[in-house]
Design a protein that fits this description.
heterodimer; A: 169 residues; alpha/beta; eight-stranded mixed sheet; two-stranded antiparallel sheet; 24% helix; 26% strand; B: 607 residues; alpha+beta; five-stranded antiparallel sheet; 12 helices; 22% strand
């Protein structure tokens, strides 16, 4: 009978993660719950792109650094324009692109790219995952129809934790 | 159910052995199964808990990843349907409790032991619980650890159930084994029981010709039975040899002329042979230890002392004693006994014999007597011979004096007295010489002359005691006798008469023709010598002719009359005694009958 000392010491000393640190981790983790069509995973890397002003302040890079997603090293790309967004596996739209969401979503070939943003009503405008602030916690909405349209298969595990689903029969 | 719990028979021992072996084997088997079952069941329980932990982990990985404890709790709550799970918890890698589930508040997991590094799963046992921790990974990265607290009380329930079943099986098996071995023990033990009953029968009936036979017995038992039978044959042979030997010994003991007896270690007589009973007149029903009564009162003290001495020291015992015959006559016996010892030298038994030495003793006494007589005779002859010459000179001188004539009348009277006395001396010398003529060959002799020659030796003594001698000789025929022996007979009788008449009396000597009173056809002569002494008391009368019987205490040898009788009987005659102890006719009369040969009889009869 070996019960070791309680290891679950409350980590009060550790500073509460910032909003974007959490979002950076989520962004990276989405890659593990989504299945991409084969065509879009031919590249040697798993691309996580940030379009617009980078709100992560380097936290995304630190989360992704050295990690792999689906067996490929994850790389963060900062894009100025949506023209180069096609090879991205995950595309994060910064709030700076607030006004161009519809245009951007339409401009890029959405096939094989998971679009994520914390712009309000992002999912309603055709985005796939929209971060929302709920009771002080970061949750997300998923537009299943949009994802399916892009040939992405979102895991039921991910759907289970989504705060809201759209386009789900 | 009649159960014999005793372990004194082979059969019941076999039964018990079977039961014990069965019980031991079954118990071990049950124990092994129980252990195996416990281990596998426990493993299964752990495996189940682990699978549950894994499922829960897989189903909550997204909830953990995206920090949604509610979803995780919902998933955990599904464990409510698994009755063995009491509580579960999800702990993040940094040790924070993410979500948990508890069937009852008391079941809540409060502490989370960290898994050993590199282990994906571990189980901690605590009483009736097992805590299974499982690391959950997503694409190679730890996301969280799921703990499942499972109840293993079922394992105990199962244990008890199993034990109960085991006991039932054990009991049934033992019962079964008992009945089987009961069947077998008849097969195994029956031959032994029959062998034992044969042995019992043999020892009860002492019948060693019986044999055991068990063709159905086991090989070892058949060997035993063969050995048993061989032993019986041996015993039978020895038994018959022993019986034969005992019969032989018995025959020897019963047929030898000695009186045989045996005594045990306490000195108690336990056996007399037939000869003893015949001689003493005792019967086997009499008290065996009353033997001292048989010993002559005069010898009894010495015999008892010798016997006690021998018995105490364990040395052989040898004593001469007179033993009373059934007709109250005592005969001399050489009584001897030797102790028979065992290997250790302890006295086991006394073996005694009594040999009749009476005749030998008489012969010895007679020999002594005869030698004395011969010596006396030779001395007498020498003296007589020496006296004869001077006596002849004196006789001649007296004769010459008579021829010359006495000087006066007084001298003539003295001369006559001298001649008379010299003639008397001459007569005594002649008689003495006759006594010394030690011839054992019979020859013709006149009985009155023989009596006279003996009487001459006693005349003086009778005269000095005022005993009147009356002689009635009706017969002067010569008969064939051993003169010296007959002289001894008369000498003995006269000697006795002299002793019983110390102060006067009358001695009547009569010789006349007569016949044998017990056989009237035999003719002969009878000498009757009667004294007027006090007579012989009736209780002694039949014993006076016994050897060593004497009323004269130290003075007599007790042999005189016994020798006399044997001499008379040697001459074919007989000697009787009549005696009266009261009234005016008291006295004793010895009557000697001597046969005279008829014309047809040869004189050799006397020898």
């Amino acid at each position: 009978l070996v019960l070791l000392l309680c290891a679950a010491t409350p980590l009060v000393a550790q500073s509460q993660p910032t909003e974007y640190e959490v979002k950076a981790a989520y962004l990276y983790n989405f890659g593990k719950f989504v299945k991409w069509p084969e065509a879009s995973t031919k590249g040697p890397q798993f691309l996580i792109c940030v379009l617009g002003e980078d709100p992560f302040a380097g936290s995304l890079d630190s989360v992704v650094a050295g990690e792999k997603v689906n067996g490929k090293p994850a790389v963060v790309l900062h894009l100025d324009s949506s023209r180069n967004a096609s090879p991205c596996n995950i595309l994060f739209l910064s709030r700076s692109e607030d006004r161009h969401v519809r245009r951007i979503l339409e401009s890029i070939d959405q096939t094989g790219t998971l679009t994520v943003s914390d712009i309000p009503d992002f999912s309603d405008e055709g985005g796939m995952i929209e971060f929302v602030n709920q009771d002080g916690r970061i949750r997300f909405k998923i537009n299943v129809a949009a994802a399916e349209q892009a040939g992405l298969n979102v895991s039921s595990e991910l759907l289970k934790v989504a705060s809201a689903l759209k386009g789900k029969p | 159910l009649k159960t014999r719990l005793q372990l004194d028979s082979i059969a019941s021992r076999l039964t018990w052995m079977n039961l014990l072996v069965s019980a031991a084997a079954l118990s071990l088997a049950c124990l092994a199964f129980l252990a195996y079952d416990q281990i596998t069941f426990r493993e299964n329980l752990v495996r189940t808990a682990s699978a549950q932990a894994e499922i829960v982990g897989d189903n909550t990985v997204s909830a953990v990843t995206f920090n949604d404890p509610d979803v995780a709790r919902q998933t955990l709550a599904a464990l409510r349907n698994s009755s063995n799970v009491r509580a579960a918890a999800i702990v993040t890698p940094d040790g924070r409790l993410f979500a948990d589930f508890a069937r009852t508040p008391g079941d809540r997991i409060t502490s989370f032991p960290p898994l050993p590094p590199r282990y994906i799963e571990h189980a901690w046992y605590s009483g009736t619980n097992v805590l299974v921790g499982r690391r959950i990974q997503l694409q190679g990265k730890d996301t969280d650890t799921v703990y499942v607290l499972a109840d293993i009380t079922e394992i105990l329930t199962r244990l008890w159930r199993y034990l109960l079943i085991s006991l039932l099986v054990l009991g049934a098996s033992l019962l079964f084994a008992y009945f089987i071995s009961r069947g077998f023990r008849r097969w195994l033990a029956k031959p032994i029981e029959r062998l034992a009953s044969v042995a019992r029968k043999i020892s009860r009936e002492k019948n060693f010709s019986l044999r055991a036979d068990e063709p159905s017995a086991s090989r070892e038992l058949r060997v035993l039975i063969a050995a048993f039978n061989d032993m019986l044959a041996e015993i039978q042979a020895r038994d018959s040899a022993l019986q034969q030997m005992a019969a032989q010994s018995e025959g020897i003991l019963q047929s030898i002329p000695q009186l045989v007896w045996t005594a045990d270690t306490s000195g108690q007589i336990d056996f007399y042979n037939r000869r003893w009973f015949e001689y003493t007149g005792m019967t086997p029903n009499d008290d065996f230890n009353d033997w001292a009564a048989v010993v002559h009162p005069e010898d009894r003290g010495a015999v008892l002392a010798t016997w006690k001495n021998s018995f105490d020291s364990g040395t052989p015992y040898l004593v001469e004693a007179r033993l009373r015959r059934h007709d109250s006559a005592y005969r001399w016996h050489l009584v001897q006994a030797v102790p028979l010892r065992d290997e250790a030298g302890r006295v086991q038994q006394w073996f005694g014999t009594s040999t009749d030495i009476h005749d030998r003793k008489l012969a010895e006494a007679a020999l002594v007597q005869a030698e004395k007589l011969a010596l006396t005779g030779r001395m007498a002859a020498t003296i007589a011979h020496e006296i004869n010459n001077p006596l002849a000179s004196i006789t001649n001188a007296a004769h010459l004096l008579g021829v010359v004539g006495p000087a006066n009348e007084q001298q003539g009277e003295l001369l006559a007295l001298l001649s008379e006395e010299v003639a008397r001396v001459s007569h005594i010398v002649k008689s003495t010489l006759g006594l010394s003529r030690q011839t054992t060959a019979p020859g013709p002799a006149s009985v009155p002359e023989l009596i006279e020659s003996v009487l001459a030796l006693f005349q003086r003594r009778f005269h000095s005691r005022n005993v009147e001698i009356v002689k009635r000789y009706d017969l002067a025929d010569s008969i064939e006798v051993v003169s010296s022996e007959l002289r001894q007979v008369f000498s003995n009788i006269f000697s006795n008469a002299l002793d019983v008449m110390p102060s006067g009396g009358r001695l009547v000597i009569a010789v006349r023709r007569s016949f044998d009173w017990s056989n009237p056809s035999r003719r002969g002569l009878r000498v009757c010598i009667s004294d007027s002494g006090p007579g012989i008391p009736p209780e002694y009368r039949h014993r006076i002719f016994e050897a060593f019987f004497s009323t004269k205490a130290e003075m007599g040898t007790g042999l005189g009359l016994w020798v006399s009788r044997s001499i008379v009987e040697k001459h074919g005659g007989s000697i009787r005694v009549r005696s009266t102890v009261s009234g005016g006719h008291r006295g004793t009369c010895f009557s000697v009958f001597l046969p005279m040969p008829s014309a047809s009889q040869s004189s050799s009869q006397v020898a």
